[in-house]
Amino acid sequence: xRRPFSHLATVAATAAxxxxxxxxxxxxxxxxxxxxxxxxxxRGAQELGDPDYGVCRGTDPRCYHDWGDFxxxxxxxxxxxxxxxxxxxxxxxxxxxxxxDPPLASANVAQNALVAMGKANGFGVDWxxxxxxxxxxxxxxxxxxxxxxxxxxxxxxxxxxxxLRQYIRGGGGFVGIHNAFGTEYNWPWxxxxxxxxxxxxxxxxxxxxxxxxxxxDVSTAALPGRWDFxxxxxxxxxxxxxxRFLATVDESSLPNGVRxxxxxxxxxxxxxxxxxxxxxxxxxxxxxxxxDAKAYTDDGGAFAGAPSFQRLVLGGIESAMxxxxxxx
Length: 328
What we know:
Elements: H1 4-16, H2 18-27, H3 43-48, E1 57-58, E2 77-81, H4 109-121, E3 124-128, H5 137-140, E4 145-149, H6 158-169, E5 173-177, H7 188-193, E6 199-201, E7 206-212, E8 226-231, E9 235-236, E10 244-250, E11 272-279, E12 282-287, H8 294-297, H9 306-321
Parallel strand pairs: 2-3, 2-4, 4-5, 5-12
Antiparallel strand pairs: 1-11, 6-9, 7-8, 7-10, 10-11, 11-12
Helix pairs in contact: 1-2
């Protein structure tokens, strides 16, 4: 059954365009600001303004559409998309061949890790770097969530952009990991899907301490309050807004500081690394973490924080799919 508030926003958009979407969104009650340790403040609005993407967005589930007919009886399945049209992270290994589920080499560490994660936790995983596999909404509606795994630059053509947007509008799930934030820079709708945020720069890869903001969300429920990890610690412009913040990095724990290669000074006492939101009818779970290949594979503790990172990602995927509660 369609949710009446979401349907109202869609009807308004059809009748009167983007301006009516803004009115309908306002009628939804002024979507709440970020949750978690940030309290009722919307840190995005506080720091860099609150970008408006002309869609229903925020932490209110009334922004969600259930039109995609995702039937739990059919099981759960994700599509992992790792196409790169620019720099390629080493954790992805060599570029994949065309089609769906091309052969994976041992060097395709991150893709293999998500396939193994699905097998261990009861959901199916397909993978591709072939943009033709995202060409129609019907192709994407076979999946409960689409995972952008360190994609880069213009990873989608026009057909795939349209397909992804319609998939999200129909209630699809989206998970963005690491350099998903370095993708589709010039597409405002995608920036909104990321939480109204985008990659600007980062400092040197280095160890630091992640702070779990609360333990209510599925993705953070099993995590310690503070855990060591190594990453590139992305600096963001715009800063995330209207999202539920899930985890931050303690900038004071970074031995080499957080100033980025392009001069960004970091985010001070609140530097988010994971968050979630409802967006334009769908669910979006995001993390800037995931640079090092060992973060995806080490479960013995040699790479500090790897088990916590893996639990974080697993919970994000499960909740974005609708397999477990989302963005609580």
